[in-house]
Amino acid sequence: MTMTTQEHPVQSADVLIIGAGFAGLGMAIRLKQAGIHNIIILERGTQVGGTWRDNQYPGAACDIPSNLYSYSFAPNPDWSRSYSGSAEILEYIHSMVRDFELHPFIQFEKNVAGIEFDEQHGLWHATTDKGERYSARATVLASGPLSNCSLPNIPGINDYQGKKIHSARWDHAYDLSGKKVAVVGTGASAVQIIPELVQQVDHLTVFQRTPGWVLPRVDLATPEWNKALFRTLPGAQYMTRQALYGVHEAMALALIWRSPLTAVAERVALMHLRHQVKDRWMRRQLTPDFRIGCKRVLMTNDYYPALQQPNCKLITWPIVQMTPKGIRSVEGIEHQFDCVVFATGFDVGKAGAPFSVKGLNGRDLDDEWQIGAQAYKSISVSGYPNLFLTFGPNSGPGHNSALVYMESQLDYAVKGIQKILQADLLALDVNASAQSAFNRNIQKRLAKTNWNSGCKSWYLTDDGFNATMYPGFATEYLAQMSQFKEKDYHLVQAG
Asked: In the listed set 342, 367, 382, which residue is the last one of a domain according to the structure?
């Protein structure tokens, strides 16, 4: 339905989904399967894909096996290898649009500037940066935690006259061959980029602030008989998925909490380092001084060998500033480059909303989250009725597939949206007391995890508040999300 105003026509729907990545498309699929078809998906880009559309840097891949990093309701029997690259994952996302006929629901180049709840009518109103307007009974924020990136705050970064590339905004038109290139960062993106760049450039310099724990991974090509088996017997793929799930669940005992398995994981990582790096000084530079799991664990077989190539140099001195020609490190040396690649991560929304979100009585989500993002079960925020978050506060996994967590969020949101539509509610608003109790428990449990053991990471705010990770097994998270406790919500009936 469309209403016309003097400014822009207002497009109305039962459900407004913001973002057409894994979360937004999965939400649309689950809503359709539940019989809800009056849906609008707003996507700021020109195609679907979210993080996997944006992250097309050389070597981009997932560090969770593909049979687990996919939706159980949209299995793909044709994954080419154990850990698929970004291009294949993006094609999987496109296949979901085709297979579930989602294209009619998606509106591209719609960059939402803000949303506001209309308490009188029980509607969320959304406005894009071009002034386009939408309204819906319920809204799902599916913009994702890794949707926004920016260059790091390095003094003099705007003075640098060479080429600057962020890993999430790769410039494929720029020819790196024969160039002197720097990579700033040694996190999950960097360890995939560096082995690719070292083969292309004349010389590569890697600036490391903190070494990470690196574990090897078994990445094998999928034989044709395996694909045929999964196509013929979908149950075989399901059993494979469950086996992978179980293995990753066991890893929680090593990565989330300190246990005997933590020491085992650290020993495996150190053996991997010793096996691949023979030089003692370099091994010392690459040995972490924090507990495994405190930062994101890196999964790669190629990173250490790349650092030892004749045309690669590792620098562990801190960066002081950028100059017109390169980077000056703390020991006073200016390193000159044709191009600097920033593999410095994302603006994770742990202390603010992705855009203006106005709830009851004009309350502002960004203001409320400045002291630390909080939600009920990571998906509902008190004072913001009929709003559902995907990958909201404290829903991050440290050991298992993000899409396993995501599925449970989608199914939970469907239950809430069904309640709004079937009971004709003006508002379904989680009680502040339920939200507070939930978060007190979460923070108490987080205090005992490796993430809160003392290192600095993107999991934490600057003052050490962990609004990112879920302190438990995926099985616990799924059990939590399987129960929609109506008593924890305030229901406002229409009329």
From this structure: 342
| Percent of the chain predicted with pLDDT > 70 | 96
Token digits for 171? Answer: 């410039």
- In angstroms, rounded to a whole number, what is the distance separating the alpha carbons of residues 339 and 162? 6
The pairing of beta strand 326-329 with beta strand 319-323:
antiparallel
Task: Kindly calculate the radius of gyration of the chain based on its CA atoms and give it in whole angstroms.
Answer: 23
d(CA 255, CA 304): 22
Tens of pLDDT, residue by residue over 3-36, are 444 567 999 999 999 999 999 999 999 999 999 9
Of 326, 342, 358, the residue at which a domain comes to its end is: 342
pTM greater than 0.85: yes
pLDDT tens string 183-210? 999 999 999 999 999 999 999 999 999 9
Q: Sign of the C-alpha dihedral, residues 134, 96, 60, 238?
A: positive
Give the integer Cα–Cα distance in Å for 195 and 189.
11
Same domain, 361 and 405: yes
Angle at 324 between CA 319 and CA 326, to 5 degrees: 40
Smallest CA-to-CA distance from 247 within 402, 64, 394, 70 is with: 64
Token code pair at residue 169: 């905004």
User: What total number of domains does the chain contain?
Assistant: 2
Q: What is the residue range of 393's domain?
A: 2-148+347-493
- First-to-final CA distance of the chain: 21
Pairing of strands 326-329, 312-315: unpaired
Q: Domain check: are 297 and 434 in the same one?
A: no
